């Protein structure tokens, strides 16, 4: 009788264990079954994700995603998504991971889980050339007489609202439209991520001035749906691997230490 009960307990434990194993790593299981890694981003964030002249997507995140998919043995599928809808797209299953230069912050972390940061950036300033030497830091822009632009739903916008409360703020759907406001004289400055500011300033050196040194600390991370530690574990180990074998440095140099890719974009 005792032996029978023990056997039943062992059998039940085996069933529970097997059931947990089947349900573990739902995202990874889905990727393996579909043969696709679907990565959400918002094309236009140089040099992370952009649309090339041949309508293909290129950029730092895109290359990292392709390497990830190759190592998984699946096809990389880019999912271009408007920024204000990118987290809902992940949550509703339109993509498996957000690889989009997304800053890790508390509000987003309440909706998604982040892997370890894969790069750290911060906010910099694009200035109207007339203000060069007049504006020496972001603090100088915190004045009702100045108009500041940024992209809707980004950390740039959050920074303006939190740190430049006295300035007039104009939000735009894309970072390019926000930067054009400065060139066209409709905004005194634009607050945005340092990589974009650096590249845009290089392309328009005769039209804008910059304060390039970031005044915020912003780690960027890949995001996945909450409740799947196996996917987080995979992403963290993948990042360690490519940083250890030189793949990360090679891709980083391609997009951040060279401007050869500029001729590919529209």
Structure description:
The chain is an alpha/beta fold and 266 residues long. The chain folds into 2 domains: 2-120 and 220-264, Periplasmic binding protein-like II (D-Maltodextrin-Binding Protein, domain 2, 3-Layer(aba) Sandwich), CATH 3.40.190.10; 123-216, D-Maltodextrin-Binding Protein, domain 2. The protein has 10 helices and 14 strands. The strands form 5 sheets. Strands 10-9-11-8-12 form a 5-stranded mixed β-sheet. Strands 4-1-5 form a 3-stranded parallel β-sheet. It has a two-stranded antiparallel ribbon with strand order 2-3.
Which strand order spans the largest sheet, edge to edge or round the barrel?
10-9-11-8-12
| Integer tally of domains | 2
How far apart lie the N and C ends?
A: 77 Å
Provide the CATH architecture of the largest domain.
3-Layer(aba) Sandwich
The biggest sheet, with number of strands, parallel, antiparallel or mixed sense and barrel status, is: 5 strands, mixed
- Given as residue ranges, the uncertain stretches (5+ residues, pLDDT < 50) are 1-24
List the helices and strands and how they pair.
Elements lengths: L1 H22 L2 H9 L1 E6 L8 E2 L5 E2 L1 H13 L2 E6 L5 H6 L5 E2 L7 H4 L2 E3 L4 E3 L1 E5 L19 E5 L3 H9 L4 E5 L2 H9 L5 E5 H10 L5 E3 L6 E3 L2 E3 L3 H16 L2 H10 L10
Parallel strand pairs: 1-4, 1-5, 9-10, 9-11
Antiparallel strand pairs: 2-3, 6-14, 7-13, 8-11, 8-12
List keywords for this structure.
266 residues; alpha/beta; D-Maltodextrin-Binding Protein, domain 2; 2 domains; five-stranded mixed beta sheet; three-stranded parallel beta sheet; 10 helices; 14 strands; 41% helix; globular; disordered N terminus
């Amino acid at each position: 009788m005792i032996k029978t009960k023990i056997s039943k307990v062992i059998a039940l434990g085996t069933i529970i264990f097997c059931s947990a194993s089947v349900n573990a790593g739902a995202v990874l299981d889905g990727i393996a079954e579909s043969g696709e890694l679907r990565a959400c981003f918002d094309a236009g964030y140089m040099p992370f994700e952009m649309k090339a002249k041949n309508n293909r997507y290129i950029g730092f995140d895109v290359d990292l995603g392709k390497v990830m998919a190759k190592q998984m043995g699946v096809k990389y599928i880019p999912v271009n998504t408007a920024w204000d809808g990118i987290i809902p797209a992940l949550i509703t299953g339109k993509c498996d991971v957000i690889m989009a230069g997304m800053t890790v912050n508390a509000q987003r972390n309440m909706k998604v889980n982040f892997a370890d940061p894969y790069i750290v950036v911060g906010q910099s300033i694009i200035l109207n050339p007339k203000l060069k030497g007049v504006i020496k830091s972001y603090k100088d822009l915190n004045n009702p007489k100045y108009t500041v632009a940024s992209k809707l739903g980004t950390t740039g916008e959050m920074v303006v609202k939190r740190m430049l409360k006295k300035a007039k703020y104009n939000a735009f759907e894309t970072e390019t439209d926000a930067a054009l406001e400065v060139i066209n004289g409709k905004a005194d400055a634009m607050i945005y991520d340092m990589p974009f500011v650096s590249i845009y300033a290089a392309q328009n050196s005769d039209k804008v001035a910059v304060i390039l040194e970031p005044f915020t600390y912003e780690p960027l991370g890949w995001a996945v749906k909450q409740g799947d530690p196996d996917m987080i574990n995979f992403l963290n180990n993948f990042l360690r691997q490519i940083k250890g074998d030189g793949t990360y440095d090679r891709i980083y140099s391609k997009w951040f230490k060279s401007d050869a890719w500029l001729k590919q974009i529209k």
